[in-house]
Amino acid sequence: YFFGRKLGGPWCGCAAALLGLLYPFYVYRSNLGRYDTDCLNVTFTLGAACLFMRFAEVRTLRRYFYFAAAIALYGLFIWWWDQTPAVVTAITFLPFLVALALYYRPPRKEAIIFSSVIAVVGFIFILLKGPLPFFQMVKSLFLQYLYISKDTAGDFPNIGVTISEQTRPSLESILAYTTINAFSFVLAVAGIGLMCWKCFRKTLFLGSLIILSVLAFTYANRFLIFF
């Protein structure tokens, strides 16, 4: 809702929220008896993007309220999807990198204080945990890629080839799961293109969602919920 409202006003926000909740694959993955983590993974991914976008756009000290809220959401996201903390970290902080690279231009003193706080927190983390978690995170991302790509690493076949939600979807199933028919699918893709054209920099905050959506086409149908 907040993304749609920011890009096109309250009616756009309501339409975005309604369509997001009612499209077929979301209903399928969140109904009673099928419910799993993927439905709230979408919520947390969009929430991080929205909060970091507000952090980027607000010019007053209130921006750090949005930053703190995004960090709190990151904690909830890790708690919710605790099997893959490396993936959660990558998904959450990609829009933060967009904010830093394209928007965050505070006064020098404010920038020094903010950077110092980030550095101190990072130093304390390394002091307590050591540098090993960072290497484990990179390794975990690599193993997750092997899993979804179904490449074999070792003597045994990749278990991903035996799981139905890891199969690559056909175009027909993509249409059925997302927008029911080809006409509405073309309209939806055209809307994404229009969003990229009219507000390209804001669309970059949806980078995590876009990357996960591409994975639906190339690797596994479980990512259709993000698309």
Provide the descriptors you would attach to this structure in a database record:
mainly alpha; globular; single chain; 227 residues
Compute the number of strand runs: 0
Distance separating the two termini = 16 Å
- The percentage helix is over 70%
Shape: globular
Largest sheet features: none
Determine the strand fraction and express it as a percent band: under 5%
Question: C-alpha Rg, in Å?
Answer: 19 Å
Order of helices and strands: HHHHHHHHHHHH
Mean pLDDT across residues: 83
Unreliably modeled segments = none
Structural class by sheet pairing and helices: mainly alpha
Instruction: Give me the number of helical elements.
Output: 12
Summarize the structure in words.
The protein is mainly alpha-helical and 227 residues long. Helix content is 72%, strand content 0%. It is built from twelve helices and no strands. Helix 1 packs across helix 2 (10-22), helix 4 runs antiparallel to helix 5 (63-80) and helix 4 runs parallel beside helix 6 (85-102). The longest helix is centred in the middle third of the chain and has 22 residues, at 108-129. The model has no long low-confidence stretch (mean pLDDT 83).
